From TrEMBL:
GO terms for molecular function: acetyl-CoA C-acetyltransferase activity. Keywords: Acyltransferase, Transferase. SUPFAM superfamilies: Thiolase-like. Its EC number is 2.3.1.9. Residues 267-388 form the Thiolase C-terminal domain. InterPro entries: Thiolase, Thiolase-like, Thiolase_C, Thiolase_CS, Thiolase_N. Pfam families: Thiolase_C, Thiolase_N. The keyword Electron transport does not apply. It comes from the Bacteria. It is an enzyme of class 2 (transferase). This is Acetyl-CoA C-acetyltransferase. Belongs to the thiolase-like superfamily. Thiolase family. Residues 5-259 form the Thiolase N-terminal domain.
């Protein structure tokens, strides 16, 4: 079977809701990432055989097949096809896995996996809300209701359930949230993200221009007292806006190629894909599946958690990485070592390739070998991708 290599990985800096990236159309934001991947590799853009774009809220400016829209907004020729996919928060991680599978099967040699989400311009849940307002039906079908009677499928409720099941208190979650900001701030100050961020020109309120190249959501002066002051989202619960991921605008992408393409185009590999896993489980607790997906991935790869140098476990809600680390007896220092979505933001469909970008660059910068990425996803699904830095 052909090996799949990552030869370029880039992301925008995150923008807060209504913040510095609010003026960017999502197709244009994604196009900037595509152009940067091409520039980084020096590849002939006509050699790109497909673009697989993750996006969750596929309506409004992210409707009309935003993956193709990004290609048409970029410098890539019209001959480059694209598709937009939705595996909820794991959309662009699944894009990586589809791209790698295409390369590993010998079907294609050069594929870009990417993701985009403007949560400012296309708010989360807005597409479903439009249908509900028009009285055009419910997301939960009659047969789903028969199978799960009276059950609400909610990521928020799932996060509360995980915290209760695994015994995490509000103090545990808030302490973890603070650490996310501390690590993200330190990584930013060290310049750790410099090689992965695509700078974007933005208009300033005063009518001037600036460059957006720094994640906007990081609280550099975060304190435990400040995080504790945020109100609970449900009475008697433990989840707050401060210990959950931030709403975020952003785009990201990686270029994945075969060994034949490495030689034909003179490309330098950054990493190789070592394992691709996706599993599904309980759609009610929903966000716990990364624990079990990682079990399967490690078993299939013939590895133990100790062999993994860095782990990116998406911080959708603080209980998710905490439960994952406890389940695997994982080293906390290796998990989300540069902060996570609580500090850096979670641009839904863009988060998969965003985390992979950070993981690949961090492994190489630190001289480490193996990295693991996992993502909890709506409906009780989880992706796991293991890479080997080169």
């Amino acid at each position: 079977m052909t090996t799949a290599y990552i030869v370029a990985a880039r992301r925008t800096a995150g923008g807060k809701r209504g913040g510095r990236l609010a003026g960017w159309h999502p197709a244009d934001m994604a196009a900037q990432v595509l152009d940067t991947l091409v520039a980084d590799t020096g590849i002939d853009p006509a050699a790109i055989e497909d673009v697989i774009m993750g996006c969750v809220s596929q309506g409004g400016e992210q409707g009309f097949q935003v993956g193709r829209g990004a290609v048409l907004a970029s410098s890539l020729p019209e001959s480059v096809p694209a598709v937009t996919i939705d595996r909820q928060c794991g959309s662009s991680q699944q894009a990586i896995q589809f791209a790698a599978q295409a390369v590993m099967s010998g079907t294609q040699d050069v594929v870009i996996a990417a993701g985009v989400e403007s949560m400012t311009r296309v708010p989360m849940g807005s597409t479903g809300a439009l249908f509900a307002q028009a009285g055009l039906g419910k997301a939960k079908s009659p047969r789903q209701e028969a199978r799960y009677p009276g059950v609400q499928f909610s990521q928020f409720l799932g996060a509360e359930m995980i915290a209760k099941k695994h015994g995490f208190s509000r103090d545990d979650l808030d302490a973890y949230a603070l650490e996310s900001h501390v690590r993200a701030a330190a990584a930013t100050e060290r310049g750790d993200f410099a090689d992965e961020i695509v700078p974007l020109a933005i208009d300033t309120p005063g009518g001037g221009e600036a460059i957006h190249d720094r994640d906007e959501g990081i609280r550099f002066g975060a304190t435990l007292e400040g995080i504790r002051s945020v109100k609970l989202l449900a009475e008697g619960g433990v989840i707050t806006a401060a210990n959950a991921s931030q709403i975020c605008d952003g785009a990201s992408g990686v270029m994945i190629v075969s060994e034949a393409a490495l030689k034909a185009h003179g490309l330098t590999p950054l990493a190789r894909i070592h394992n691709l896993t996706v599993t599904a489980g309980d759609p009610v607790i929903m966000l716990e599946e990364p624990l079990f997906a990682t079990d399967r991935a490690l078993e299939r790869a013939g590895m133990t958690i100790d062999a993994i140098d860095l782990y990116e476990v998406n911080e959708a809600f603080a209980p998710v990485p905490l439960a994952w680390a406890r389940h695997h007896d994982a080293d906390p220092a290796r998990m989300n070592a540069f902060g996570g979505a609580i500090a850096l933001g979670h641009p839904l469909g863009a988060s998969g390739t965003k985390l992979m970008t950070t993981l690949v660059h961090a492994l190489r910068r630190r001289g480490k070998r193996y990295g693991l990425q996992t993502m909890c996803e709506g409906g009780g699904i989880a992706n796991v991708t293991i890479v080997e830095a080169l």
